[in-house]
């Protein structure tokens, strides 16, 4: 008998066959559902954004209501949340909304032509998207069960308020047009089979998706997916190396465009999206979702590839997908056997160094276990770590050793600062 995760994968496989050129985009939505993240799609018109969204949300049963709204410049907060109850407003002066049928009571949301909305309305939906709650002076805090929203737009505009809203969409994608004769025939077949209406897929109980996503997001102490020290270290190495190479490429492109400027541009001037600590943490949900989809209880090396669905804009022309594939090839290929064991040892060492760094005022000569030998943290170098571990060469291991050695060096570097417990 097929498991719930298996049936979910099967449904998305059918979607991929019927919506050609969107396989990666649909896979990103699958991971967004498991991680309870929101999705933002942008493209030109006529790319089947509405049809894909209704087909995705339509595969779940009636216990998961979907809120759908085509946003315009005239869209109001009441269109999004529900009408203000006039009697209550007249009687007490409080703005009390009738939330029935609005986004606050929905499990899924499809927000079409998102960019057409006013900053005031879009800013108002921030708390529902991020904190899953609706706040008003008249009603206080109302919990919102929103699982995943898909917002779409045919163009991009950016204001400070809108930037704050878009940050709530962990998963972003650009939908390209149909590519080639084969995809054209598949798209034509989909239209002829379904007459432009949403695909009829096997209906799944929403409770099953909720249980899977609960497991993805649960801590290890609560029975969630195990992420070992080595896998946590590999996670950080992948993201940091990808970001480093992305900045290198952007800097080279900047110099080509500005050959007469001698000064080096700041990272923030290169237009490369920042990977914040919040993003770095939330990306763990994608590797854990990959483990859940494959019926595993712990994250493995191959699951790290799924980070791309929360880290990149899928389908755009930035070259980030090819760069991510390159980084994964360099850091993940060949990470087996003895090398994987050494990675776990380095992960444990990195954890100890991180803990010592947090308590650095007491650990100038702290002892660390490296390769079975107790050594003073202040005496460690990259070469000593490599010698103690006696490992085979691998880019991921070399990067780990170099970064751990830098952190160890910081332990013995004097810092002028106020110690909360000891004072100056």
Could you please describe the fold and organization of this structure?
The protein is 48% helix and 10% strand. With 424 residues, the chain is of the alpha/beta class. The chain has a six-stranded parallel β-sheet with strand order 2-3-6-1-7-8. α11 (229-257) crosses α16 (337-358) and α16 (337-358) runs parallel beside α18.
Q: How would you spell out the order of helices and strands?
A: HHEHEHHEHHEEEHEHHHHHHEHHEEHH
Low-pLDDT runs: none
State the share of residues found in helices, binned by percent.
40-55%
Q: Which class best fits the helix and strand makeup? A: alpha/beta
What is the spatial order of strands in the main beta sheet? 2-3-6-1-7-8
The major sheet is characterized as: 6 strands, parallel
Cα end-to-end separation = 65 Å
Overall pLDDT metric: 87
Alpha-carbon Rg, integer: 25 Å
Strand proportion, as a percent range, falls in 5-15%
Number of strands: 10
How many helices does DSSP assign? 18
* General shape: globular
Tell me the layout of helices and strands.
Elements: H1 4-18, H2 23-35, E1 39-42, H3 49-57, E2 66-70, H4 77-81, H5 86-92, E3 108-112, H6 119-124, H7 126-130, E4 133-136, E5 140-143, E6 148-153, H8 160-166, E7 171-174, H9 180-194, H10 206-217, H11 229-257, H12 277-282, H13 284-293, H14 308-311, E8 313-314, H15 320-332, H16 337-358, E9 367-370, E10 373-376, H17 382-389, H18 395-411
Parallel strand pairs: 1-6, 1-7, 2-3, 3-6, 7-8
Antiparallel strand pairs: 4-5, 9-10
